[in-house]
Design a protein that fits this description.
Length: about 375
């Protein structure tokens, strides 16, 4: 484990002398099968990281996106491939579901009834699939605008489930809107104040309302059940927020900043606190994040493909669960562990926990599904 002071010393050595191919300290590991001391210092927990290649049909590549996980399977969207992949918990590909050509499946979730819903971003629809991957229900979310000669596709990118377990919210990536599919299947659209905001992600919060990220607007958005939208500017300009998730048993939402290379939290009154992520090199950027069963926070970090030199590792950072109790905006006394991943230049995209407490993540450009197996032998 490292604290930030020790990390800064190590990082200075790293920058001065280039890539280091062996462990720097106990807190930074270069292999995918790792044992670390449990908190009691007497027993060990084992972290095993593997990834699985998704051989999508057709010629399209580099478009592996979102995850939805139930008690048995992991579902992954291949947007430009117009397919959804179904894996079991062992990482075995079970089936590939073909979506309509040119539809661009992206967002994916299960509602409270266990039904699988997918947003077809390129065609402006949100659909429900049956157990064989066939479309059973189709909701057209395109906007009917008075005076326009055709409907407008808002590009439903991310989808999120309301607290009622049935209402589905979606981000209008193209139109700077958030949308709502009610249980009766009626559709509503609510505009953001920020033009060109690029809203991309939604998740329900402790207050029962929806929270989201604006990639270009660098705002956190909040929308209540009546469609009243509030936008909260992130202090770091051009931070490019990616994902936002609720704090376990807390009163904050946590989010990641791609370009800001930070994580942040926002309380239910809109107060934002940011924390610098301790990356290995200056061309690392941040993707998504999730909490594990013990309350530790995992953050995806990868080398920016637009700035690929120097070459480096893609990795996950596990911050100790005490991160939710940190006062102020510094993590100097917080323990964290870095786990490098088997694949480099992956463009990490999403990470979520399954029902067994293990983590799954997607690699967008290398078209892989990764698994972080957390085996604890602690008392």
């Amino acid at each position: 484990m490292l604290n930030l002071k020790v990390f800064i010393i190590i990082l200075a050595f790293f920058i001065a002398y280039g890539t280091i191919d062996k462990p720097l300290r106990d807190g930074i590991k270069r292999n995918s099968d790792i044992e670390a001391l449990c908190k009691d210092g007497q027993s060990v927990s084992k972290v095993n990281i593997t990834d699985f290649k998704i051989n999508w049909p057709g010629d399209a590549t580099g478009s592996t996106h979102e995850l939805a996980i139930n008690e048995k399977f992991i579902f992954v969207t291949g947007q430009n491939m117009d397919h959804i992949a179904k894996f079991d918990y062992n990482g075995k590909l079970i089936e590939l579901y073909k979506m309509p050509s040119g539809s661009g499946p992206h967002g994916i979730l299960f509602n409270k009834h266990g039904r699988l819903w997918v947003s077809l971003e390129f065609s402006g629809k949100v659909v429900r699939l049956d157990d064989t991957g066939k479309i059973q229900e189709e909701i057209d979310v395109r906007m009917q605008v008075k005076g326009a000669d055709r409907s407008i596709n808002p590009a439903p990118h991310g989808i999120g489930l309301d607290a009622d377990g049935e209402t589905i919210w979606f981000t209008g990536k193209r139109t700077s809107t958030v949308g709502k599919i009610n249980p009766d299947k009626s559709v509503q659209h609510f505009p953001l104040e920020t033009l060109g905001a690029l809203p991309i992600y939604l998740f329900r919060g402790p207050d029962g309302n929806m929270w989201g990220t604006e990639l270009s607007g660098s705002n956190i958005l909040h929308v209540n059940g009546k469609g009243n939208v509030t936008e909260y500017p992130i202090p770091t300009t051009n931070s490019r927020p990616i994902a936002i998730i609720p704090e376990p048993d807390g009163q904050h939402m946590w989010f990641s900043e791609e370009a800001g290379v930070k994580i942040g939290k926002i309380d239910m009154n809109g107060r934002i606190t940011e924390y610098q992520v301790p990356v290995l090199q200056k061309n690392d950027i941040v993707a998504s994040l999730c909490f594990d069963r013990e309350g530790n926070l995992w953050v995806q970090v990868y080398v920016d493909m637009k700035n690929p030199k120097p070459e480096g590792y893609d990795y996950l950072i596990k911050f100790d669960k005490s991160i939710t109790k940190v006062e102020g905006n510094e993590l100097k006394d917080l323990s964290f562990t870095i786990y490098t991943l088997p694949t480099r230049m992956s463009v990490l995209h999403r990470i979520e926990m399954d029902n067994e407490g293990n983590l799954w993540y997607t690699e967008m450009m290398t078209d892989k599904l990764g698994k972080v197996t957390l085996k604890s032998r602690c008392n």
